[in-house]
Amino acid sequence: MVDILFFVFAATAVGGALGVVLLKNPVSSLLFMVGTLASLAGLFVLMEAHFLAAIQVIVYAGAIMVLFLFVIMLLNLGHDYRDDLKRGLGMFTGFAVAGALAGLLVSQLRGVDDTPLAQHFPGPDALDALLAERGIIGAIAHPLFTDYVVAFELVGILLLVALVGAIVIAKRRV
Amino acid sequence: MLAEALVLSAILFVIGTAGVLIRRNAIIMFLCVELQLNAVNLSFVALSQYIGIEGQVFVFFIMTVAAAEAAVGLAIIISIFRHYETVNVDNFNLLKW
Fold first, then answer.
1. Does A28 lie in the same domain as A68?
2. For residues A6-31, average pLDDT
3. What is the reported pTM?
4. B65/A155 CB distance under 8 A
5. Do B70 and B34 meet the contact criterion of CB atoms below 8 Å apart?
C-alpha cells in the first residue's frame, strides 16, 4: 500500500514539475507547482514527517504560492508569453547542462542501498520509537528548542529583515 | 523506499535546473529554484528516516529561508518591472559584459 502511494505521489510530482517547466502560461505553471508541492507533502507523510507535511501545505502550497500568484496577477503576466521558452542554442545549452547534471546524479546514485546506513545509524525503528515517545510535534520541537535554539532565533531575525527589505524594495519612491 | 526517494529527488532537481536554464520569465525561473529547494528537502526527509530527526529540523529551516527568499525576490522582480515594464530576463543586460 505504501509503495503504491509512493509511486502515485512520485508520478504526480514529476508530472507537475514538467508542467511547471514546459507550460507557457505563468498561471498554469504556478498551479502545476501547487500540485507538485501537495504531492511532496504526501510523500513527507509516507516518510513519517507529518509536521513538515502540514507546514508544506500551509506555508509552501498556501502562502508562498499565493504570493507568486499575486505578483503574476499584479504584473498582469497572464498573456504575452510568446518567446518565454528559449529556442535554438539557449534551449540546447539548458538541456545539455541538465543532462550532464542528470548523468552525474545517476552515477552517484547507482547502487544506493540502505544496509550500510542501517549499520551505522539508528534506522527507521529508532525514529518510530522517538515519534511514539515524544509525539509528532515534540520529536521535532525538542531539538529545535535545545540544540538548534540559536539558529531558530536567527531565523526569526532573518524573517524580520526579509519583511522590512521586501517592503523597502517594492514600495514606490515617495 | 530510500533509493526511490533519492532518485525522485534527483529527477525533480534536474527538471528544476532545466527550467531555470530554458525559461525567460523571471518569475518562472524563480519558481524553478523553489522546485530545486523542494527536491533537496525530499532528500533530507528521506535520509532523516535513517539518520535521525535532525534532517527534519533542517528542512524546517530551509522552508523558512525559502519563504524569506521568495518575499525579497518577488519584491526585486516588482521593482525591476517598474523600470523595464517586462520580466523577460533577456532585457536585463545592464551587468552583461
1. yes
2. 92
3. 0.90
4. yes
5. yes
